[in-house]
Structures
1.
Amino acid sequence: MVTSEDQPAAPAPASTSLANRYGGQKRALTSRARRTILIAGLAVGIGFMAWISTSSATSSVSFKDVGYSTPDATLAEIDFQVTKEPAADAKCAVKALDAKFAVVGWKVVDIPPNAANAGSDGGRTTTQRATVRTESQAVSAVVDSCWIPDAAK
């Protein structure tokens, strides 16, 4: 009895079987498509930078903590600088903190318009001092925020 051994089928070429399973090779981007994507990316980047620079330039008021003192367990004093248009009113929220950073005192301070010869920078920057009553011993005092009040209110 003569038997012939089963001959294995010839395997498909690797590239064909992979292409059947995963799809064909992706085409590379044309130079025109790459150039278009690059130009669009640059336009978005330039637009973002312009938006950032104009939004910070239109900031109406800014502040900087200068120092603080705690004369006793019921008071905290904070010295800070406010930069705004000289003719504008402003309000600043100041807070006193204890050793665990809990707020132990809070106050909103009114900043009146400045004379052109007050402070520095043509009256734009003035130094302020605020006294805040505290419910327990404060270990620091900071400005939380400053803003220009809405004239309609």
2.
Amino acid sequence: MRTILFLLLSAFASHALAGADDLPELGDASQSALSPAQERGVGESIMRQIRALPGFVDDAEVTDYLNDVGYRLVSVSTDARQDFSFFALMDNSVNAFALPGGFIGVHSALLLTSQSESEFAAVLSHEVAHVTQRHIARMIAAQQRQGLASMAAIAIAILAARSNPQAAAGAIAAAQAQALSERLAFTRANEREADRIGVQILEKAGFDPHAMPVFLDRLQKATKVLESGAPTYLRTHPVTFERIADVQNRTFGLAYKQVPDSIEFQLVRAKLRSRQKDPREAVVFFDDLIGERKFSNEVAAQYGLVEALRLAKMERRLPAELEKLRKIAPRHPMLTTAEARTLLALGRKQEALEVLKAGMKEFPTHRALIYDYAEQLIASKRAEEANVVIENRMQKDPNDGRLYELQAKAYSELGKAMLKHRSLAEAYLAAGNLPLAIEQLKLALKNNDGDFYTVSSIEARIRELSAIAAKP
């Protein structure tokens, strides 16, 4: 079943594509219809709505993996002139998509369907190329007014999806019925260009470029056996025999590369698998995988079983399965966080805190470890220590909203109301909610537990954010 998000994105692209045969060439002055800054702003606006959807994967380890692979690809692209952000959605359809402004979404089923990391990277490289070639902006340039109206429809439909998916689908149908009439998300010319550049990016980044035609060919063949018709990726990224042949021709002269999958690829897939199904179904899946030894990576399979058991709250089996994981696992931050979370589920809080502390020394930049360690320090009435951990990380990433949320918790434990509201303001700002950020700053000033410097800095921040909010 297609997600509401897919409907929104395909509606946006399809509507903007009316008359797409006359798309401007790269560098054409008509691109000024949507500047890169405006494009980023549109993307951020849509992302605020996407983050509120139930399927949004708010997991630091999954997100960091996607961005690690994504920026490995972006770093070798000669056309990348903007920031990129990669994120995941829990969805059973095989799909990935690009939003205005460099935001690239990945469905969990895409990672689970990819038979190698190079195949997954092939899809990401294709989406990166859509962004670097500004295909979405060019669509909007083709029909500016209709494209902007479509973006408004997207926002309305996403809001409706929060409470009533059927109403969201209805909103799309009503707003864009004519535009949706048998239109595809990208033209064949767009797809050829994204394939051509994607293959180049894939090879330069050290992945196997032959993975792209292999993945496309397997997806197309799958349409013959799927009752529901083509996978979502084929509906939003039209695949023809000619397109596959074209990609095969582009990779024909390139040497095959034996590129081993990273342990992160295997662990992230196992983590998503443990969440893709009902937790108890996931336990059965991993039990069968391990029992029949059908896994491609034993550590990832055992990790997935431990994650599924924890989510299913099957505590009786957890100690034995955790011990099995410890015996075969290499030192890795994702395995450290899994161990600590399992110990917490078993009520062994002090032991979990020690695991996190040791992990911080070994992997000091791993976001999930930092979050979990700070959280447990606060829970252990050690909020001052938590603040030190949080502030150290903030020096490297001052826009991390989760850090500000944790800092607000720490200040609340310490009874510092003014600082708590100031931190909450920055958390809201990081999420793109300017009005709530200003409101929190005003609430901060209603408390009298801050010094003159703190009060002055909050007043200055209110003036700064209010000026931004007043801009048209």
3.
Amino acid sequence: MAKRLPADIEGYLARLRPELEGTLREILGFVAAEFPALVLRLAWNVPHATLGGGHVAGMSAARNHLAFSPWSAAVLAAHRGRLGDLDSTPNLIRIPPGWALDRPLLRSLIRARLAELAAARPTAAKKSPAGKSKGLPRRRPRPI
């Protein structure tokens, strides 16, 4: 019988081994306290911090580590020198269970991602006039 997917973050945390759950709870608590404008929710069945429609950070648990992703290879690359002994890929950091939370690192990663999202948002001057789409042109039907 297939396992049911978690309905919320608490359901996700309840499935984890205690040492992973404690570390992830600490990370989520820090994010919620430090960045109250962010919404913590499940996306793709794992916890995410979002702002509007933008993903700021994603977190998930594996067998022997937690994964933290700032949803930006550029943000992670800019912080590579601050990761110390943490294992990483171009897209995520592997956090061991029981990790002593590096608040300045997490704060910096999230602030950098928020700045990246803000820079990508169109300003009022860049928005197209009402009814004028800057999307792809419509395809003309082919003759039969």
